[in-house]
Design brief:
Layout: E1 9-20, E2 25-32, E3 41-43, H1 49-55, E4 66-69, E5 72-85, E6 89-96, H2 100-110, E7 114-123, E8 128-131, E9 136-139, E10 142-151, H3 167-189, H4 194-216, H5 222-226, H6 237-242
Parallel strand pairs: 3-9, 4-10
Antiparallel strand pairs: 1-2, 1-7, 2-6, 4-5, 5-6, 7-10, 8-9
């Protein structure tokens, strides 16, 4: 049993702790430690230390961990001011931007619409251990790319494996394919800054992972949804698309 380190994964575990209206700052836990979650993962303290050192707010790298809305790399609503691991989890203080998206997020925090947070990350092959007697995965390191403000845990893509067969499944597949095509064209155009291309590449990874989820999962087979499936790091896209049962 294993996790796929090639896939853009998401995990909802964050909770709002404090909101400073004057400073436009928000504090939250974006991950909890030592708790078995719905993915049967148990994340240990220290799992984010490398990501914080390499891409955190105090790092010298130019590709920082991003603060997004709905895991959308075109919707950066702010930036992390500080990130640290304590006994409870990964605690983040963030500055909301002055952009329209940042302002909208601020209003949604004030109104209680944003109540949860989720992380976008990659598993590390050599930092996962399956504990058979407890039937969970012990995680000692994750590559953290971003954390996102989400509305009641809702996300237009996170439920792709739960969509029913038929029109709903077909609509989801078409949306993912259209979004992938748009991102691919934007990358191919060669226009924009390095930061824009990085954001587009990350969005492409996210969409690829959701397309893969949709292609390999039979939503009528509940045992498959619970099963820890061994995924593959490369595959034939034509086969993936054709395997979707519309």
């Amino acid at each position: 049993m294993r996790k796929d380190s090639s896939i853009y994964s998401m995990k909802a575990a964050g909770e709002l702790k404090d909101l400073d209206l004057q400073q436009r700052q928000v504090a939250m836990y974006v991950s909890k430690f030592d708790v078995i979650d719905s993915d049967r993962d148990l994340i240990r303290r220290g799992s984010f230390s490398k990501s914080i050192a390499e891409r955190g707010p105090k790092s010298e790298g130019n590709r920082k961990i991003a603060f997004l809305r709905y895991h959308n790399w075109e919707k950066q609503i702010g930036k992390p001011l500080s990130m640290e691991e304590d006994e409870y989890g990964l605690f983040v203080v963030s500055q909301l931007g002055n952009s329209t998206m940042g302002q909208d997020a601020m209003e949604d925090y004030k109104d209680g619409i944003i109540r949860e947070h989720s992380i976008g990350f990659k598993y590390m092959d050599d930092k996962i251990r399956y504990v058979e007697d407890g039937e969970f995965f012990e995680i000692t390191e994750l590559a953290l790319w971003e954390y996102s403000a989400v509305t009641f845990g809702a996300n237009q893509y996170t439920n792709v494996v739960d969509v029913a067969k038929g029109q709903e499944r077909e609509d989801m597949a078409k949306k993912l394919l259209n979004d992938l095509e748009a991102v691919s064209k934007a990358i191919a155009s060669g226009r924009g800054t390095d930061e824009r291309f990085y954001n587009l590449e990350m969005k492409q990874k996210f969409l690829n992972a959701r397309m893969y989820d949709l292609a390999i999962t039979n939503p009528t087979d509940k045992s498959q949804l619970a099963e820890k499936t061994e995924l593959h790091t490369s595959f034939d896209w034509n086969k993936v698309v054709n395997s979707i049962n519309f």
